[in-house]
Amino acid sequence: MAEYIEGKRPVIEALRTRVPVERVLLADNAQRDGLVQDILRKAKAAGVKVDMVPRAQLDKRSERGSHQGVMAQAKPFPYAGLSDVLAHAEGQAKRGNGSALIVLLDHITDAGNLGAIARSAEVVGAAGIIIPNKRSARVTAATYKSSAGAIAHLPVAQVANVKQALERCKENGFWVAGASEKADQTIWDSNMKGKIVLVMGNESEGLARLTQECCDFFTALPQVGKTASLNVAQSATAIMYEWLRQNQ
């Protein structure tokens, strides 16, 4: 199903952050104010066509009723297959020192968290991200924004079964590290060298039971303060950088 970005400023932001936009829909009676003129300029610069449509058509497509006479239709995200992510990881391991990182998100539900994790994953050189195809955040315009566009440079695979995906990673020589605040060892004491799948759990429930059964070991961030924990995106970033440090 097509994703629509509603409103003048959200459409401007989508064009600015290079969200892949199929077309911009502009109400035929929309006021040509400064924001609309900015949309037209950015769309032209990006090679995005602008279609003039009756306002009633926007009303019909709108989910929030806040389109302000402007909507952008985003292109579907080109998800990779699990085989593509594994092949990318294997190529990285061969070119480097035998290390590769895959990040599996066990039913992360917030698209902003997905984007923030993708941004860090791309920066540290991860080979890809794996997400479930149900009950999980998917790549949306919000993901492009929170990843600062990094999501476009990282293979993201959707899988039907997380356990089977982890088992396949193991068959390809990966160790599976589950992030859990209940772990007996901190990330500083964990061996993150080589080919690692880092598994991050759901924002509120953590790692699912079946996912935990697939983990070779669990690791946690060291903690001194009184706050219960960092959010999933912050935690993933810290752990990924420890993987990078150990494999430098």
TrEMBL record:
Question: Which InterPro entries does the UniProt record give?
Answer: Alpha/beta_knot_MTases (IPR029028), Ribosomal_eL30-like_sf (IPR029064), rRNA_MeTrfase_TrmH (IPR004441), SpoU_MeTrfase (IPR001537), SpoU_subst-bd (IPR013123), tRNA_m1G_MTases_N (IPR029026)
SMART domains in the cross-refs: SpoU_sub_bind
In this protein, which residues make up the domain named RNA 2-O ribose methyltransferase substrate binding? 4-80
Q: Name one GO biological process term.
A: RNA processing
Going by the UniProt record, its keywords in alphabetical order are: Methyltransferase, Transferase
List the GO terms this entry assigns under cellular component, sorted alphabetically.
cytosol
Q: Which domain of life is it from?
A: Bacteria
GO molecular function terms noted in the UniProt entry: RNA binding; RNA methyltransferase activity
Indicate whether Methyltransferase appears among the record's keywords: yes
* Pfam families for this protein: SpoU_methylase, SpoU_sub_bind
What family does this belong to? Belongs to the class IV-like SAM-binding methyltransferase superfamily. RNA methyltransferase TrmH family.
Entry protein name: 23S rRNA (Guanosine2251-2'-O)-methyltransferase
- Organism in which the protein naturally occurs: Denitrobacterium detoxificans
